[in-house]
Structures are given as C-alpha cells and as structure tokens.
Amino acid sequence: MNLELPLDIETIQQLLPHRYPFLLVDRVTEFEPGKRLLAYKNVSFNEPFFNGHFPERKVMPGVLIIEALAQAGGLITQIGYGEEAKNKLFYLVKVDNVKFSCPVVPGDRLELEAKVKRTIRNMALYECVARVDGKQVACAEMLCAEVDKAKEE
Fold first, then answer.
1. Is 53 among the residues known to form the active site?
2. Looking at the whole model, is its pTM more than 0.90?
3. What's the pLDDT tens digit per position in 20-47?
4. Catalytic residue among 18, 23, 36, 53
5. What is the full DSSP assignment across the chain?
C-alpha cells in the first residue's frame, strides 16, 4: 500500500470500508502518526443529498459533515495499524460538543482536521474541526471503538 502524501481516493478506499455515496473523504494532505490528520472533501453540486436538502438552497446535511470528520479520525487509526487494519473495524460510539457555524454548499472544499485527544484500550477520542476556506463550519468530539472483523462475522 502506497502511503505517500497526499493519499488519493484509491488508497483511502483501501483504508476505509465506506463506498459511494458514503465515502466522504477525497484526499489526505497531512498526517502525523497517532496524532493528527488533515483531509478534504470536494462538495459537488451532484451530491445525491442535495436533491432533497434543500432543493432551493442546497446545504450539506450536518450529520454528513460529522460523518466526514469521523472518517478522517478513522483514517488516523487505520494508517497507524498498517496491514493489520484489514482485520479491524471502527465504529462511531459517541459524539459530543457538536457545533455548526456556517452552511456547507456546492462548490465548497470541506477541510477535515482530526486530532487524537486520547486513546483508551480499544477506543480513541478525537477532536475534529471542519473548515471551508479556513473558516470553521463545524466541530465535535468523537469516540470510536475498534472491533475485530472476525468477531463481527
């Protein structure tokens, strides 16, 4: 697996189980092992959720911004595990202190920053911030738990 930055969509698909329309990270541009990751999602007019949210004033749903941030956090852990990541799944367990400051609309580049706040056994707590043009549009703290794929089957 090529982990040279920036990570492209093919590499991201090797690390995350999500697929269209729920893969919400297009590229990883910065990475500090076990600490921080910076990525982005290009928000296109063609996103399927814009058909109903809202047709006259298209706005990216907040829950999808949170999901994109969770995927960025998951990438920190997945990259850290390397090849062993293929045997692991990570589930979002808890989201706290969510704040939305501005709408995200077609044409925006949603910058996703996730930082590891702490790890506890098989869980990681992330501090996450989403920005557009350097301006914060959302933030949250997220807790994710790791499970072995073999135990899920």
1. yes
2. yes
3. 999 999 999 999 999 999 999 999 999 9
4. 53
5. ---PSSB-HHHHHHH----TTS----EEEEEETTTEEEEEEE--TT-GGGGTS-TTS----HHHHHHHHHHHHHHHHHHHHGGGGGGEEEEEEEEEEEEE-S---TT-EEEEEEEEEEEETTEEEEEEEEEETTEEEEEEEEEEEEEEHHHH-
